[in-house]
Amino acid sequence: MLNNLVIKPGQRVLTRLVISRLPSGTVIDIPVHVFRSTKPGPTVLLLAGMHGDEVNGIETIRRMIRRDLLRPLCGTIIAIPILNIYGFLNFSREVPDGKDVNRSFPGNPRGSLASRVAHRFMREIMPLIDYGIDFHTGGAARANIPQVRCLLHQDEETDALAAAFAAPFTLHAPLRPGSLRETAMQEGRRIIVYETGESLRLDEPGIELAIAGTFRVLHHLGMVAAAAPPAAAGVVCMRSTWLRARYAGLFRSDVHLGDYIEKGQVYGSVADPYGEHSVRLESPVAGYIIGLNHMPVVNQGDALVHVGRTDLSPSRADLAAPYEEKPNTPLEIDDTDEDVV
């Protein structure tokens, strides 16, 4: 049963979860599409719009619904194109009270607005699902190369889902407190995250890769008859490092998403806007560019590039010698991935 509806085998249903009202009195509800086969099988969640400004996942699910692609041979598919309707309406990552829905699970029916959205999801959706794909996008002018994020080598089912999706990059991402992934794992459900592009921009190649990867997961679960194989083998990164701005100024990147950079390689520069100083940026680690800041104006501490690493050596013990120019070493190392969901 979902939203007080009994959905019978073979039915396709659109229902709406009422969350709250705007101050104007307009009802805010979450459309939920349910596609149920006549044969028993797993229930898979396709979720997007956890952050309202991340449109690539929204478009991914919209296309699959519009093209009538979600016809499971067995089991059930639950598709939610937009979870955070508030953020979507306001071009925002958060809900109006400034809180992140993806740090608010399992939620509280009497808590903040984000907590109430999470609680309604937990009450209505979570008990029904076995597996899920949560679609996301880089935020704040930071673009992500198409990638799956999940907890690798700790759970066989999660590893199998990530391998079946076969994204160009797969990143080991520890669970974050209050996230959907963490809460799902505690409930015995397996959810992987797919990231591509940047907020408020459509990434066409990333969207088509998302659809193809979704069908490979459904094929792996026996829910569709066939799925296209990946065009190339993906790269697995067991760790990642954000290189951050140590100085404010105008950032110019010399690398692109997907590039491999060597330790000590110059990946860009930060200059003051008056033409007096410019500092080259050298990477202290080797790896693939899996995230890139497209905002030219940066402040101290801003994330510049995200390096996915296949090495296992500790980054702080493996730093390159600082670039000899005043001021020295215009970067900092941060092994925490602030975009992990």
UniProtKB/TrEMBL annotation:
<dbReference type="GO" id="GO:0016811">
    <property type="term" value="F:hydrolase activity, acting on carbon-nitrogen (but not peptide) bonds, in linear amides"/>
</dbReference>
<keyword id="KW-0862">Zinc</keyword>
<dbReference type="GO" id="GO:0046872">
    <property type="term" value="F:metal ion binding"/>
</dbReference>
<feature type="region of interest" description="Disordered">
    <location>
        <begin position="316"/>
        <end position="341"/>
    </location>
</feature>
<dbReference type="InterPro" id="IPR043795">
    <property type="entry name" value="N-alpha-Ac-DABA-like"/>
</dbReference>
<dbReference type="GO" id="GO:0016788">
    <property type="term" value="F:hydrolase activity, acting on ester bonds"/>
</dbReference>
<protein>
    <submittedName>
        <fullName>Succinylglutamate desuccinylase/aspartoacylase family protein</fullName>
    </submittedName>
</protein>
<keyword id="KW-0812">Transmembrane</keyword>
<dbReference type="InterPro" id="IPR055438">
    <property type="entry name" value="AstE_AspA_cat"/>
</dbReference>
<dbReference type="InterPro" id="IPR053138">
    <property type="entry name" value="N-alpha-Ac-DABA_deacetylase"/>
</dbReference>
<keyword id="KW-1133">Transmembrane helix</keyword>
<keyword id="KW-0472">Membrane</keyword>
<keyword id="KW-0378">Hydrolase</keyword>
<feature type="domain" description="Succinylglutamate desuccinylase/Aspartoacylase catalytic">
    <location>
        <begin position="40"/>
        <end position="221"/>
    </location>
</feature>
<dbReference type="Pfam" id="PF24827">
    <property type="entry name" value="AstE_AspA_cat"/>
</dbReference>
<feature type="transmembrane region" description="Helical">
    <location>
        <begin position="69"/>
        <end position="89"/>
    </location>
</feature>
<keyword id="KW-0479">Metal-binding</keyword>
<feature type="compositionally biased region" description="Acidic residues">
    <location>
        <begin position="332"/>
        <end position="341"/>
    </location>
</feature>
